Task: structure prediction
Amino acid sequence: MNPSSPQPSLLEVRGLRKEFPVGGGLFRRSREQIQVVDGIDLELAAGETLGLVGESGCGKTTTARCILRLIEPSEGEIRLEGTDLRALDGEELRRFRSRMQIVFQDPYGSLNPRLTVAQTLEEPLQVHGVREPDERRRRVGEILERVGLGREHLRRYPHEFSGGQRQGIGIARALILRPRLVIADEPVSALDVSVQAQILNLLVELQRDLGLSYLLISHDLSVVEHMSHRVAVMYLGRIVEEGPTAQVLADPQHPYTKALLAAVPRVESAAAGRPGPLPGDPPSPRNPPSGCAFHPRCPEAREECRVHRPELIELGSGCRAACWNHAEPPSPSASNGVSHKSLGAQRRG
Result:
């Protein structure tokens, strides 16, 4: 997919970090912190879909929850339509939440089994001040029909629906407040393959009709290819490659992106020259490797990869990658932090 024309930024994320304490106990506060999201930048235009991909545990969902302020970031700036979300608190934040919603991964666990569909969809409207019962019923009926369910389903409970129908109800709940930004966190991974395409096509149709912007979190590159205008690849809390989806998937510039693509099942045999499976497991954020975090698993690792951490650099055509294969290595005498800053300053200059 390609956006028809450049659009102004709807969401801007700069220097986002999230640390969690580890260890400690009921009466003893832990002094050790692990860095789960490590200084990432993201930008999303109005009407665009940005895919955020990576292995389980790389920090994708934590990033999404920080953006929505479901959990508090440790550092960073988050702006939605120019408003600094971290400056909002209490009632201000509650009112602003109508502009940003989330579709959860699990359609079975994300719906209250004690509420009917009508109650589930009316609840956000009541919380956000839609007092007139007739208006609430009108909006509930409209959004339910948009996701392919009829008004005859309003008095039913979640256990009476299939997985795809439940996810449709979850999407309706996210859209009932008419948000600008929707975060879709693995929206089809818990569904049968037979209904995944239906939900993805529904999301594309709703985006076209309602002018939505999506941050799509997925480990499935085929989902990202179908849905996203741009893709950001995440590894151990950092963005390692970003660019237009078609270009990144056709010509990946970071070894980790190449490894993700190599893991996608293909009809052709391995003898066709495709890279083999990625060895090993992602390192623990509690004890991250020095230099580039990917170097212990990277078939292209060099000495500078073990010592210095690369920053994202522009490669042209809107693509960026954090890899020493595309940058001049730092001098041996340069410290890790100094080399990053000096390289960044040279590139910006």
About this structure: Residues 334-349 have pLDDT under 50 and may be disordered. The longest strand covers residues 9-22.
